[in-house]
Design brief:
It comes from Brevundimonas kwangchunensis. With 454 residues, the protein is α+β, with helices and mostly antiparallel strands. It is built from nine helices and 19 strands. Strand 17 and strand 18 form a beta hairpin.
């Protein structure tokens, strides 16, 4: 079965589920919700006022929602131009189409407490960093990567028990959805985007659009405290560009055991300042080479002997999303901080850590309550052992470039809500120590992110 056939089959399965959930047939009387759908169709807003560019599909979207099915679609474009650095100055754009159907199985099929989700994603375009030779530790376009192909990115079922206190999820999942997730839709630099863990160890921890078989248990301990536990297949075959719809297990190298503790307090006199705090970690049981040492414990880059073998990968992460100033009723005047941190083990990972802080303020200018201005600083650090090896290579006359240490990325952008469905986000980026090297000149880039809610 070729990729286009798989895409057609998945698209057909999604459509069939939506039509089955929508309910009414020619032999049955229209349900009460049909009146709602007809009214929605009759009051369809114009293109510049509607929250979704494709509208309500003649009332079908409302009818599906009433029946428990929510269809989400968007196209995001990340583009940039490097004013300096690399082999030349140039412009590149990358895009991502996201199509998802989420089904409340209680409304749709009478199975209370259940949720089913299927997501297809397609990435297009080019990487500015790759095409002009910026040689960075992190890309300057958050949505580029994992191949310009269609992928089955979610296919899972979640069942709630004990009045929602317990949630069990299984199917095709991603580590980044359930562990260490924070919003990053208002930035272009990957230095700032979470979850940070899967971006410094991207060879075995995956974010969207790549999925793997896995299970996750979420347990509410108190109204503000949850714990997440999961087991996810570690399978590099899922990264291949000819495996966008691969559902097998051949090629699996181990299992990823992940855990996270989450606290969701509300601060302020009127609980108007919600926050989310997470701390967690992971263990991947896959064998791999040591990142620097040979079988005798010496630097492999100097001896040329076989690398020492390691039995696992490990790491920890922490995340914060906190409202610092509550917005006004129109959405203006709100200030939010987002923080990401991940630290990977020294034995198996070239990059040791990633940390970022993002501040976002809404309604900076009068009459633009839904706009936001966002500023972020992020740093990615190389494994100190890798730096030591490179220093040894320099001393031995085997390397002329400076050893890699820490790369810092800074971004300032403005999110202009052109319509309720379209956001245009121009910005400026600054990269200090590109590639983590102190002997390289800093890089300045212009960026623009376009979001189309379909």
């Amino acid at each position: 079965m070729n990729q286009s056939t798989r895409t057609a089959l998945c698209g057909g399965a999604m459509t069939a589920a939506l039509l089955a959930a929508s309910g009414a047939t020619a032999q049955t009387a229209p349900p009460p919700q049909a009146t709602t759908a007809q009214a929605a169709a009759a009051t369809q807003p114009g293109l510049w006022e509607r929250p979704l560019l494709t509208g309500d599909w003649g009332g079908l979207r409302t009818r599906l929602k009433d029946r428990g099915v929510v269809f989400t679609a968007n196209e995001v474009v990340d583009a940039g131009y490097n004013f300096d650095g690399g082999t030349r100055s140039d412009f590149r754009a990358a895009g991502q189409l996201y199509l998802s159907a989420a089904v409340d199985t209680g409304k749709a099929w009478g199975l209370e407490g259940g949720k089913f989700q299927v997501t297809l994603m397609n990435r297009q375009g080019n990487s500015l960093a790759n095409d002009v030779g910026l040689n960075l530790l992190q890309p300057v376009q958050t949505i580029y990567g994992r191949g310009t192909i269609w992928r089955l990115s979610n296919l899972w079922y979640e069942q709630s028990f004990n009045d929602g206190a317990t949630q069990f999820k299984f199917g095709r999942v991603t580590h980044g959805d359930d562990f260490g997730a924070t919003p990053c839709g208002n930035v272009n630099l990957l230095h700032l985007c979470g979850p940070a863990s899967s971006q410094i160890v991207s060879g075995y921890l995956y974010n969207l659009p790549v999925s793997s078989w896995g299970v996750r248990l979420r347990q509410r301990i108190t109204p503000e405290v949850h714990v997440n536990l999961g087991v996810i297949e570690s399978n590099p075959v899922n990264l291949r560009e000819d495996r966008g719809f691969y559902l097998g297990t051949d090629g699996a190298t181990g299992a990823i055991y992940a855990g996270e503790l989450q606290w969701t307090p509300k601060f302020g006199a009127n609980n108007e300042l919600p926050g989310t705090y997470k701390i967690g970690g992971w263990i991947d049981t896959s064998d791999s080479n040591n990142v620097v040492f040979d079988v005798n414990g010496d630097y492999q880059a100097l001896t040329g002997l076989a690398f020492a073998r390691e039995e696992r990968h490990t790491g920890i992460h922490a995340n914060v999303v906190q409202q610092l100033i509550a917005p006004e009723t129109d959405g203006s005047g709100g200030l939010t901080v987002v923080g990401n941190l991940a630290v990977a083990d020294q034995a198996t990972n070239r990059m040791r850590s990633k940390a970022a802080v993002i501040l976002s303020y809404t309604g900076l200018f009068p009459g633009r309550a839904k706009d936001d201005v966002t500023f972020g600083v992020g740093a990615v650090s190389m494994n100190g052992r890798v730096t030591d090896v490179q220093d040894a290579q320099i001393a031995a006359g085997l390397r002329t470039e400076a050893a890699q240490e820490t790369e810092v990325g800074v971004e300032l952008n403005y999110g202009y809500r052109l319509t309720p469905a379209i956001t245009v986000r121009p910005g400026i980026q600054f990269i200090h120590n590109p590639g983590g090297r102190s002997d390289r000149e800093d890089i300045t880039l212009g960026s623009i992110k376009l979001v189309f809610n379909l």
